[in-house]
From TrEMBL:
Pfam families: ExoD. PANTHER family: EXOPOLYSACCHARIDE SYNTHESIS PROTEIN (PTHR41795:SF1). InterPro entries: ExoD. Keywords: Membrane, Sugar transport, Transmembrane, Transmembrane helix, Transport. This is Proton transporter. The chain crosses the membrane at residues 42-60, 66-86, 138-169, 175-194. The keyword DNA-binding does not apply. The keyword Transmembrane helix applies.
């Protein structure tokens, strides 16, 4: 049964290549067309696309993470309410992307994605149970809210954790999702201890 499911899944790079081949005669494509092409892997792939910019050095520009973090909030809510297909507002669904730019991004990222994909495969499928998937949505919602906040030097961490969740969802890889949860818990403890220490320091200084 699992073997059958594994065969039906298409790799992230192959999906992107299929989109390029299908639209090679077009000058642009819409977000709606991308979501349709990604199929049941749309949630994970769109999450990765929006989280990637926040994992780059340019994310230190004020307001940059807010622009790309807000759509992740929207997608996380989809997962929490167990919506099986990704719905986009008409205006967003009709937003057009230049095909040449899309191809350029795919060509630049494909070598890295190919390396990552060698580590990805459907496993630990209990992570794909509906109740557990809703928990993924809750954690990603919290991470995306954190991404919107001006927490110093944390955008890269939050975005990287969101990307791990995206990869795990896209490829139904429970091991990657486990690492995403582990990273989120560890960094959560770190931020909690750092905040607690800062509060204690300020209270001692005031007294």
């Amino acid at each position: 049964m699992n073997k059958k499911k594994n065969k039906k899944r298409t790799s992230i790079c192959d999906l992107l290549q299929q989109v390029i081949e299908k639209h090679q005669n077009d000058t642009s494509l819409t977000y709606g067309e991308l979501v349709k092409a990604f199929g049941d892997q749309a949630f994970g792939l769109i999450i990765i696309l929006f989280a990637l910019p926040s994992a780059l050095p340019i994310s230190i520009i004020p307001g940059f993470s807010f622009i790309f973090g807000l759509p992740i909030v929207f997608i996380a809510i989809h997962i929490i309410i167990a919506r099986r297909t990704l719905w986009l507002p008409q205006k967003l669904a009709n937003h057009r992307v230049e095909f040449s730019k899309f191809v350029e991004v795919v060509k630049k990222t494909t070598p890295y994605l190919r390396r990552i994909e060698k580590l990805l495969k459907p496993r630990w499928l209990f992570f794909t149970y509906p109740a557990v998937e809703r928990l993924h949505g809750v954690v990603m919602l919290l991470l995306s809210f954190c991404l919107l906040l001006p927490i110093p030097f944390s955008n890269f961490i939050f975005a990287s954790l969101i990307i791990l969740f995206g990869l795990g969802l896209a490829e139904k890889d429970g091991v990657i999702l486990f690492f995403a949860y582990s990273g989120a818990i560890l960094y959560g403890f770190f931020l909690f201890n750092m905040t607690e220490g800062l509060i204690n320091y300020i209270s001692r200084w005031l007294t």
